[in-house]
Amino acid sequence: MAVIRLGYVHVRVTDLAQARQHYQETLGMDPVHEEDGRVYLKSWDEDDHHSVVLEEGGVGLVKFGYKVTGDGTLDAIETRARSFGASCERMSKGDNAGVGDGLRVTLPSDHVLELYSDVEYLGTNVGKLNPAPWPRGLRGIGVPRINHALITTEDPALLERFFQDVLAFRPAERLVAGDEDSDLVGSWMYCGDQPHDIAFVKGANGKLHHFAYEVDDWSALLRAGDVMSMDDVPIDFGPARHGITRGGTIYFFDPSGNRNEVFSGGYRTGPDFRPITWTMDQAARGINYTHREIDQAFLEVVT
Amino acid sequence: MPRVTVVPHDVRVQARPGESVVDALRRAGWRSRYRCRRGGCGVCKVPLVEGRVDYPQPVAESVLAAAERDSGLCLPCRAVPVTDVVVDLGAEPLRAVLASTALPRTGFSRTTEQEGR
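YS: structure for the whole thing
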């Protein structure tokens, strides 16, 4: 009975044609479904129906979905969410193309989180029988899968408690300004054995800092940077290594200004992992271990 | 070509047709305050002191509201001058950079071209 992974991110874009160009040709995702003003996309190594939804009009996060196991997890989470005091409602098959019945929760940070176990299976682009390690004919970066999202919240301690108590996530790394709960600046939390499946830092409620794609390794990351240069994608920073998670990173922006990341590596966690602490005097090293300096605006710029 | 004047720095550059204020400054070797350069984050929002600008790319109302435009604010990363303009970039200094301009889009596998076939 558990949350499995980040399943989908649903974002607003100011211009759907430009967004498609970015997500399909630069990142290399495949469109799987289209409806009025929306495109649903899947990366080549993902099994489920879609992992990104682009919706025309505005910028920022509409909602995001986490897939859960089908053994009563939704009922258990609903009970715990209600006792936590979070508002939640059942969502119906068809609310999201390809996704079945589920649960829609409004987080203490005002973000809309959807949980589901029933989702249409499309399969990876290499199949499950004697598969090749990657499919021929990838476009652009050829991202294999999405990995995590980072959101902002006015009260990181409250949101950490929600993810811990209601969704059974654990913190892998915590950025703190002091010893009090109210001194928590950010938390990187996991549900499986990644260093993070969700992260949040202090900021405005309801906002998206970035969502990330996983790539194989550092050399794939550098190649991703080549494609970004070819397509004149604005880079926020990178390639660099994170102190927090130890992953390799490039942060960049989609044509509407939503921040994306390509992320590689990182260590493994698990139920017995003990959280790592970062103090504010080393926050820059935590975020960019290589350069040990970040613009003040980095944590504040969200959509 | 419209002239872009930045105050209080008193920097003057020419904007090519269709070029944003930020891109005109970058081409001339100046980095102003911006982040996403795609009209989404709002970090570059500043007063437009004189002149008129156009927004060929849609800008989200949540980033630059109509009331803000009416009150004289602009989004330099998306604002394309249609007359000579003066923008007030505030106290933060401009940083001298050597920035490459966007390359013309080429290639044969692009979605738009595939759709056009």
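YS: worth flagging: The first helix of chain A runs from residue 16 to 26.
IM: good catch. Also Chain A has two domains: 3-116, 145-300.
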